[in-house]
Structures are given as C-alpha cells and as structure tokens.
Design brief:
About 25% of the residues lie in helices and about 25% in strands. With about 625 residues, the chain is of the alpha+beta class. An eight-stranded mixed beta sheet has the order 18-17-21-16-22-23-24-25, sandwiched between helices. The longest helix has 20 residues.
Length: about 625
Amino acid sequence: MLQGDSASQLGTLVKQRGGIVTHNLHIINAVGAMVSREQLDGILQSPLVSRHIDDLSLTPDEEPPEQCNVGGALELEISPAALRWQLYNKGVDSIRLSRLSLALPEQMGELQDVYYNGEALTYSSRASADGSIELTLTAAAQELPPGASALLALRFVNDAGDEVAIKQRDIGITAQFVEGCNTELIPGYESYGSDTYYPAVAGAAALHQLGITGRGITVAVLDSGLWEHPSLSHDTRGRYRVKGRYDAIADRAGQEVFDESGHGTHMTSVLAHSSPVLQEGQQNGSFMGIAPDADIVAVKAFNRSGQGDFLDIVRGIQWIVDHREALDIRVLNLSFAARPRWPYWLDPINQAVMRAWQAGITVVAAAGNEGPESMTIGSPGNLPYIITVGATTDSWTPDDRNDDYIPDFSSRGPTPSAHIKPDVLAPGGHIAGITRPGSTLTQEHPDYLLSNGEFVMTGTSQASALVSGIAALLLQLEPDLSPDDIKCKLTSSAEPAINRDGRLAYSPFQQGYGSVNASRAVTLGKLGCGNSGLDLALDIDNQQHYEGPAIVSEGGSATLPGLDEMYSGEASEKGMSDNRRWGVKAHIERTNAAPIKVSPIDWQTLYQEERDAIQRLAEPASNGK
C-alpha cells in the first residue's frame, strides 16, 4: 500500500514504474499495488509517497488441528421411550467411545439398551454421588473416522406412554472417548425453530410489537457475502429489500455476492431475519431478527475461510461511503476483528472507518474473541469513535438475567491508546440464524446445525450484528440521529453488572457501559455524550490524536483513576449469581440482601432518575393525550 496526498497521482506513479495498481483507495489517499522490489525502491524516491506498507495480507495464527475433537448435536431427539443424539468427529484421528455419563429424570424410566450407529453396546454401570449414572463400555465402540458422525441411541422402559414431557435441559449426557476428548449435551432452548430469543432478551421484541422494525433504514454488512434466503432478501411484508451488492475482492458491483463462508449470511440474519416468532404456533408480533424490515446492502470482503485482505476491506468500506447517499446507508456492521498493528489513526481500515463515521454512517464493530486477557480488543474495534461490542451469554435461560455473564472469549480493553473498550455488551452466546447450506461453517461445524436448517454461532460478531439492528430501530424512530447520537443513546441506557455491595461486577474494560437494551435506548437514551472531547475532523487531518484515560503499567496491567473503589477486581461468577445484577433497577430492587457498604456510585439517585423519566413518558398516555 502506498499513501500520500492523492490516490490518482500515486496510481500514475506506480504505472510509470511498471507496477500494477490493484486497489484505488481514494478514501484514504492510497493505492494497493503489485510491484517488484526494484520498482518499489524507485517509487519510494518520489515525494508523492508519504507512507508505504510492504505487506497488507492478513496471516492469522494457524492453530494446529486437534487430534481428538468431538462435537455433539445441539438438539437431542426425545421420544417417550428413547433419546437420540448425533455425535461428530471433527478431529484428525479416529476416535472410539468408551464411557457415558447420564443424568436423567425419573419419568424417563429404566435404561434398557444403548446403541451406537445401530450397534448394541455392552457396558457396566454405577451410580455416582451426584445421582448420575456412569456407563463404562466393556468393549470400546467401533471407530468413528475423521469427518464421520454416529448416532447414540438410548432406549428406556417406562409407563408414561405418549404423555412423557421431558425437556432437553432436564437431561445430562457426557460422551467420553478413549483418545481423551469428550462432549456434553447443552441445555438448549425450549424451541429453536419458532424463536431465536435474543430479540426479546435485547428489548427489540417489545419494539417490534409497536411497529418499530427498522423500516426505511439501510444497513450495510461488510462480511463474506449473502445467501439470499427469502427471510433475508425480503422483509416482513414480502418486499424485496437487498438494495445493493458489491464484491470488494473482485471489485464488482450489482451481481450476487456468493457467501462461501456462511458468516456474512449469519450476521445478516441476526440483524434482519424477517420470519415471525411463534408462541404455541401463533405469531406474537415479534420477529427472529433485530431489525426485520431494515434494507440490506451486502458487501463481500472475506473469502470462504473467513479471511480478508486489508486492501479489500478498505475498498469495501470506500464503496459503502461512495454509495451512502444513493443507497441511503445509515449503519455499517463490521463483525470482524484483527490484531492491531498500528496506532488507531494509522490503521488503514480505521482510517476508512473514520471517514464512514464522518459521512454520517453509524459503524458497529466486534470487540473480538481473544479474551479473557486485557488489551485484546481487535481492529477496527479499537477505534475510539465507533461502537465496539463485547458479548454476554444467557446460560440458555432467556427469562432469567441472574445467570447472564461475560464469557471468557469476549475481548477486553483497554486499547493500545488507552481507550476504554468495549463500549457496550450484547447477547453473543449460541445465537441462531440462517446460513448457506454447504458453506464452510456448516462443513466445519455440522454439530451447530439445527433441525430447521438454521445454524448456531457464538461470538462478538453476533453481538455486533445485534447492536447494528438496534441502531436501525433507533433511526426508524428518529431519522435525524447522528452516529454520535446513536452511540450516546446506547451507552447512556446500557445496564452495567453490579454486585451486592454496589461495586461493579466487571470493570469498564470488560463491560464498557454495560449490556444494551433496545427499549431502554428508546425510552432512556440520552443525547450529547457520544464522543465528547474528541474531534474527528482533526484526527482525520492528522492534527490531533487522542489517548484514553486508562493507566497501563510496564507489566501490561491496566487501571483507571478510582477503579479500585468502583470494582473489586474479583472475577464474577460464570452462570447463576446471587451477587451480580444487571442494571440499576435490578440492583436497587434486589431482595437477597441489603448493600454491604456504602457504594462509591450513587445508584439510588440513578434509579430515581430512571423512574422519573419513565413516569414522564407514561403521563401523556395516562391523560389520554
């Protein structure tokens, strides 16, 4: 990449030296070029070049394939007298089943037979102290070759007949293999095909029922492309809503952006899946995606393995900015994170993203999946201006927030320039959505496929797409909101995790302002706090760059002024907690104990402010106005 004052002049310079211009990146005054070392040496003698980077290819750290890696299907098939569970060998060696651990409800009855790919297994059994049953095979099961699957079937004798009503979360199964790997059955949701659950958890379902669905707002998804499934290509009324397509790898617009990976389709599904949510077979007025009526612009910059080139990513962002007015693009979702290689203002992707934000596009990016260590926020999430999203998980209980927590994978701040990131958290654990059959994701993770054809993924990518959908909902209600306004509404209404003693359950480097909620952003979100103290124009012009408030020691540990008083530093529980509550309301109204000591944060005043704001909003309706 060559950078200077004029992309056009740099392109001419490359051609004069016999090189090939591959990317015209006027958005950052740069070009991508293929040149020899001799040609480059000549080019760099020109005063037109202010900066060059020899190699902008992304070469991710390759993890060695796991010798023993087995996955169990997310769904257990349950019938009155049998359980069936598909197992997948995702490793590079053959594996042999050796033991099973079973935790079964009494109404399941007495275990009669165990089959593995149709073969009856012989075993010895014993009861464990926790009430589970341990089955040890007297002879190891048949080998399961790499890439193959096997059906584990358990048959029972009971008197329940067809009346047995057992849920997957009532059953525990762990399969252990001779080679040392194992897999456990997940608790699962009540129903996968009729609800995705995260719109309700994130407060979007309540807005759907009021007609707030993102209609009239265009969101660009820069990812691996789009499979135009009817629930993605059409909105809730059946209207075709893919307004634009651009392949940044091939530099081609208007044609299909074939999604080999499946990642981009899944992100679009989280954001805009238009199928209705069903309760007991009836539509309840909400939808599977966060903004089911948003218009979509699909931009492909990642290949079948999920890898993207810096130059292609910048070219994709440039195309979005260039077509912002023609396609009325208001939101850009960037569900990827790369290891930062430069200060935020020198990163080519960040330079393009800053211009997108300046052009009036609200940019939402993933924090990354490199946690739990600090300073693991990826690029472009390390850019202080945009909305960077970390992940929470609901522990498979969408109706109970007391077991929601930040999983280890969610990247933590601060950024190398000491900014607090992520800005907010959103649901990112086991998120169901549409992806292309036969895509790389489905081939590599067949155990993540559901019986209805949808696919379950976990990560801050999903959390980012969810927040992009919330941004579209806010813009439908208030089309004049700026990107800074959207950021302020989301951060000011987010719900932090608070311990019983009034201190934060997670540091700001872990949770930012807290967990987002679409309904709270509409009712309680404020204006005027987005990127205060930062001047984007000066940053873009290289007149001023900004350091954040974090204090990073030589050893790499990070803190903030007063953090020791606000945050104990102790790790919060993974799963159910009697100590942690999400949001000021839940903290103040908790019934399990009074605060242990006076909190350094005046939660009571914040609680009263929220109550007063809600009451003011309710008054016109109560007066019939």
